[in-house]
Structure formats: C-alpha cells, structure tokens
Amino acid sequence: MLTAAAILHLVDQGKLKLSTPISQYYSSLATSNKVTVQSLLNMTSGLSNDSVPSSQLANVLNWNINPAEAGSVGQYNYQEINYVLLEGSHKSIISRLYYQYVLETKWIE
Predict the structure, then answer these.
(1) What are the pLDDT digits (tens) for 20-79?
(2) Residue ranges covered by each domain of the chain
(3) 3.40.630, 3.30.160, 1.20.58, 1.10.3470: which CATH number matches 2-101?
(4) Cross-referenced InterPro entries, in alphabetical order (predicted)?
(5) What is the pLDDT of residue 12?
(6) Is the Cβ–Cβ distance between 77 and 46 less than 8 Å?
(7) Contact 87, 3 (CB under 8 A)
(8) Residue 28 CB burial class (10 angstroms; 0-12, 13-18, ≥19)
(9) Could you give the angle at the alpha carbon of 17 between the alpha carbons of 14 and 12, nearest 5°?
C-alpha cells in the first residue's frame, strides 16, 4: 500500500501521470510501451515474475521480464513485479531510494 500511496503522491504533485508508459523508466522491458503506471498499480500489466524468486525481486532489472503466459495487458493478475517496477520508477523521479522517501514522509516509523 505504501508503494501505491507514494506513486499517487507523485501524481498529486504533478510529477507523474497514471498514463505514463513504463517504457519511460524501463526501455528494455518487453511490452513496456503498452504498460502504464496505472496498469502496474491495477495489476493489469500482463507482466509475470513467476520465474523470479521473491527474495530476488529487488534485482529485477537484471532479468528478462516476459509477458505473463495466461494474461495480457488489461487482465488482472497479481504479480509482485508490478510494484517493484513502480518503486524503481519512483526512485527515478525523486532521485533517492524509495525507502528513504517513505521514512521522510513519516508514513511509517
């Protein structure tokens, strides 16, 4: 939930649009021109992290992320990869680590 709140905070500040293609932050990602910030938030990106161990999601950019086998952009499919990509996009926009931002906003202590 903190990731969604942080992203929507950037939207409220005018620093990001829900319609922004994720290719703006991840140009090498397969289908990134079709995937938007909103589709990541809604878990409708069609991306899958089935082949990536949860413990290694922080290093997601080192892997070739493939479109979900059973889904496509627009179809709900909960995958952690969506929020990992949102956290990386957030870092690109604010130029500091996501967790630092969360601590600075005092959403958690």
Answers:
(1) 998 888 877 766 678 899 999 999 988 876 644 555 555 555 544 454 444 567 778 888
(2) 2-101
(3) 1.20.58
(4) AmpC-like, Beta-lactam-related, Beta-lactam/transpept-like
(5) 95
(6) yes
(7) yes
(8) exposed
(9) 40
